């Protein structure tokens, strides 16, 4: 037969050329303008472009009558005979699929690079030589015995499918302990809660003021309460299509909207960072207690990764609601201190833009977060008032105004 060669897709070559040329020019330009150190900063990108070009040129699969030859830029060339190949195993990982050649002893022979072009030619040749193509995910979904393929998976693939097996185990327990019509009723109830949370977010925005943050906090905490109440039969995402048919989906969208609006408090209020961390940690511990009690009562398998993720979620929730809760639970009268603005700054390092006024306060230089409107109407040398408040929990926070 005529020898056929499979190479990388052309975009690898194009990206390699563009990267090499562009960053080489930038390296030369900054070397002339700013010196050697600036020039060196761009050399890793030049090297990356060269690696892509070498990969395009040297990485290939040579298809012959009796053998497949795998050539690599840095690794040793490998020759595999067709009669040594048991199957080509497709291993879906979310949006990516690994393609692995398995030998007759169910060991991993070689992995096909997804950037290779025209792999259909290889698939046709494998089919012609009697090498079957197997979808690992389909075997899992059909409850087939996949133990013989486990040794051929790498650690990422093993962990991914272990989580699916754990989900299936939980689902089987769910099917044995909860009637199907009861599951449907709970699903309908969760949908009602989900839409209720979204409507509550809209009403909170219309009400404004303290009522707004009371509603947002209740939406976030209610979503977490639903999760704990239906744990471990509730997820916000799953990896198994079969599991999706029987488990409960957490209505998360309303809580995400509420979280976004709660974040805006951090733009206009400041406080001591370590005092805030103490409050967040204590709140997370309190929120974790009902989840821990629920977990201890369960007699079915729970993934450690899932337990840890819930504990991290309590930290996130505590952080989101920290400032709104302290503002709502402030009953003492505010005190005011005057400052003179000596500088202004805009911090775009986070997902939210922070507008800052800088002044000397209490014997040291301090940055104050303010609203965009306050930032624009303030100039260096202007006098402003720092409004200091202390919440019921003892957290001192402050805002700046005229």
Structural notes for this entry:
With 402 residues, this protein is of the alpha+beta class. The chain has 15 helices and 16 strands. A hairpin with a 2-residue loop joins strand 13 (354-361) and strand 14 (364-370). The longest helix has 28 residues, at 180-207. The mean pLDDT is 82.
Give me the secondary-structure topology:
Elements: E1 4-7, H1 10-33, H2 36-41, H3 43-58, E2 60-63, E3 67-71, E4 78-81, E5 85-93, E6 96-103, E7 108-112, H4 120-128, E8 132-135, H5 136-141, H6 147-150, H7 155-177, H8 180-207, H9 209-230, E9 234-235, H10 241-244, E10 248-249, H11 253-263, H12 265-268, E11 270-271, H13 273-297, H14 304-328, E12 335-347, E13 354-361, E14 364-370, H15 372-376, E15 383-390, E16 396-401
Parallel strand pairs: 5-8, 9-10
Antiparallel strand pairs: 1-2, 2-3, 3-4, 5-6, 6-7, 11-16, 12-13, 12-15, 13-14, 15-16
Helix pairs in contact: 1-3, 8-9, 8-11, 9-11, 9-14, 13-14
């Amino acid at each position: 037969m005529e020898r056929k060669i499979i190479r990388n897709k052309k975009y690898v070559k194009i990206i390699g050329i563009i990267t090499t040329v562009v960053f080489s020019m930038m390296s030369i330009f900054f070397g002339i303008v700013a010196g050697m150190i600036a020039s060196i900063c761009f050399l890793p990108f030049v090297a990356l472009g060269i690696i892509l070009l070498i990969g395009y040129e040297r990485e290939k699969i040579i298809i012959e009558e009796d053998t497949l030859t795998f050539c690599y830029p840095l690794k040793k060339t490998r020759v595999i005979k067709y009669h040594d190949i048991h199957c080509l195993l497709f291993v879906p990982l979310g949006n990516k699929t690994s393609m692995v050649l398995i030998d007759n002893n169910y060991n991993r022979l070689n992995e096909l690079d997804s950037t290779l072009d025209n792999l259909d030619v290889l698939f046709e040749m494998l089919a012609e030589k009697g090498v079957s193509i197997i979808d690992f995910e389909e075997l899992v979904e059909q409850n087939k015995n996949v133990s013989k393929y486990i040794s051929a998976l790498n650690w990422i693939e093993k962990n991914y499918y272990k989580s699916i097996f754990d989900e299936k185990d939980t689902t089987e327990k769910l099917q044995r302990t909860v009637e199907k019509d009861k599951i449907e009723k709970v699903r309908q109830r969760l949908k009602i809660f989900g839409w209720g949370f979204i409507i509550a977010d809209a009403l909170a925005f219309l009400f404004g003021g303290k009522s707004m943050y009371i509603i947002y906090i209740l939406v976030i905490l209610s979503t977490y309460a639903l999760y704990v109440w239906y744990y471990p039969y509730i997820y916000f995402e799953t990896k198994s299509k079969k599991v999706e048919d029987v488990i409960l989906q957490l209505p998360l969208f309303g809580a995400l909207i509420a979280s976004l609006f709660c974040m805006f408090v951090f733009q206009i209020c400041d406080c001591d960072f370590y005092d805030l961390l103490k409050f967040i940690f204590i709140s997370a511990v309190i929120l974790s207690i009902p989840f821990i009690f629920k977990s201890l009562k369960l007699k079915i398998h729970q993934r450690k990764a899932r337990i840890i993720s819930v504990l991290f979620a309590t930290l996130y929730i505590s952080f989101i609601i920290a400032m709104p809760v302290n503002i709502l639970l402030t009953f003492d009268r505010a005190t005011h201190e005057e400052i003179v603005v000596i500088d202004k700054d805009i911090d775009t390092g986070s997902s939210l833009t922070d507008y800052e006024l800088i002044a000397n306060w209490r014997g040291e230089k301090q940055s104050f977060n303010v609203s965009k409107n306050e930032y624009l109407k303030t100039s260096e040398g202007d006098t402003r008032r720092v409004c200091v408040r202390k919440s019921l929990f003892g957290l001192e926070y402050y805002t700046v105004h005229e």
